[in-house]
Amino acid sequence: MASEQSGRYSLLSLLANAFAGQTLWRPAWRAAEPKPAYDVIVVGGGGHGLATAYYLAKEHGIRNVAVLEKAHVGSGNAGRNTTIIRSNYLLPGNEPFYEWSMKLWEGLEQALNYNVMVSQRGVLNLCHTDAQRDAYARRGNAMRLAGADAELLDAEGVRALAPFLNFDDARFPITGGLLQRRGGTARHDAVVWGYARAADRLGVDIIQQCEVTGFLREAGAVTGVETNRGPIRAGKVALAVAGSTSRLTRLLDLRLPIESHVLQAFVSEGLKPLIPGVITFGAGHFYISQSDKGGLVFGGDIDGYNSYAQRGNLPVVEDVCEGGMALMPFLGRVRMLRSWGGLVDMSMDGSPIIDRGPLPGLYLNTGWNYGGFKATPASGWCFAHLIATGAPHPTAAAFRLDRFRTGHLIDEKGVGAQPNLH
Q1: Tens digit of pLDDT per residue, the chain (422 long)?
Q2: Beta partners for 353?
Q3: Cβ-based neighbours of 349, under 8 Å, separated by 6 or more
């Protein structure tokens, strides 16, 4: 809620409401009704869609914008992830983009006038073999060339940071790690709410419970959308719906080089402070951090089959828990509180797409794989730049849709066109 008097959160507005019996607060954003037409329609009320609308209004002065969300804002992947932010990538098509996102994260709370709880406690990727250590050295060098921070640690350096890890009788001995101290976590819900509030203050209409059921087309161009609340016309239609992208593009008879998979995440009972930042297991796909409430938040691989469900299956639960137990056996005594599944859009090379669609008037933001949350600010910034100017932002220039046709892939892990391995 924001103060009715100023619209800004501040110590003054907090004191004013304290003395007024908390009666001066107003809704953080309007319950907007759809207008017949907009300059831009952004489909998807998650972090990427709301960030796009905010930067369209703030950076480009395009304020006749609607964000359409079929449920409530943040009800998709934005509220179903493990909240990690980092820029520890290798390839030149990826690293500058994610480093730009880190820089936006670092100033986001001041820009939005909202506490999104950015916590830069560090991201530590563990290595267990000489070859893996060499790969981390190469990645760290690439990060530093792109302006990011990176430190290569030996086993004793890792022990100093996380003495609770299994060093003595591990099946996969820890030989070191790659540390990015500026990495960490942010509060997923707060990010969505902060962008929604800031976009609304700039005149953007955020329309919830408004599901897109089709598209308006004229002379081969996309000119609007059909919704459960009636047709809405627009000069440009931008999709930012993660794993539901293929559902919507199917309505346009388009097939994209992405697959939808479920990515499960888990949180434990609350514990006293233990995990100093984010730690990833190098001998298996496992990552863990600790929330401000004390719960251990962790995850691993996607479910291997294609699905549009926001729930997973037990074999992945077992695999994730095995990875955690190999890294820190004490997890066997911790009770899991809940789990959830996000619907992720896995591209064929493991890197995203921010580009014009195959039809005039259509714009695509998809293929985020495991990296959607950490990319939120830069994704919105670059997508807004593309929509407003018609040209890709320099840090996202490699995220072209036609790279799969031309062979200019951004294959960060080198596993080819197998989304389940990225």
Answers
A1: 444 434 789 999 889 999 999 998 889 999 999 999 999 999 999 999 999 999 999 999 999 999 999 999 999 999 999 999 999 999 999 999 999 999 999 999 999 999 999 999 999 999 999 999 999 999 999 999 999 999 999 999 999 999 999 998 888 999 999 999 999 999 999 999 999 999 999 999 999 999 999 999 999 999 999 999 999 999 999 999 999 999 999 999 999 999 999 999 999 999 999 999 999 999 999 999 999 999 999 999 999 899 998 888 999 999 999 999 999 999 999 999 999 999 999 999 999 999 999 999 999 999 999 989 999 999 999 999 999 999 999 999 999 999 999 999 999 988 888 888 88
A2: 366
A3: 403, 404, 409, 410, 411, 412, 416, 417, 422
Alpha helix segments (H runs only) across 1-79: 11-19, 47-60
| Contact of 95 with 87, CB cutoff 8 Å | yes
Residue from 192, 217, 151, 202 nearest 357 by CA:
217
Q: Report whether 275 contacts 296 (CB < 8 A).
A: yes
The phi and psi torsions of 117 (rounded to 5 degrees) equal 60, 45
Q: CA-to-CA distance for 127 and 221, rounded, in angstroms?
A: 50
**Looking at 95-155, which runs of residues are DSSP E strands?**
123-127, 151-154
Q: List beta partners, residue 297.
A: 267, 289
Q: Give the residue from 384, 412, 386 showing the smallest Cα distance to 401.
A: 386
DSSP 29-44: S--PPPPSEEEEEEE-
Helix axes 188-201, 47-60, angle to 10 degrees: 30
Give the number of other Cβ atoms within 10 Å of residue 202's Cβ.
16
The two tokens of residue 289 are: 């951090």
**SS percent in the chain: helix, strand, coil, step 5:** 30, 25, 40
- CA 217 distance to own-chain centroid: 30
Q: Taking a C-beta distance cutoff of 8 angstroms, is the pair 224, 66 a contact?
A: no
* CA pair distance 9, 3, nearest whole angstrom: 7
Is there a contact between 196 and 151 (Cβ–Cβ < 8 Å)?
no
Which of 250, 212, 249 lies closest to 357, judged by CA? 249
- What Cα–Cα distance (Å) separates residue 309 from each residue in 43, 76, 263? 19, 11, 10
pTM over 0.90: yes
| Backbone φ and ψ of 215, nearest 5° | -130, 145
- DSSP-derived secondary structure for 265-285: EEEEEE-SS---SEEEETTTT
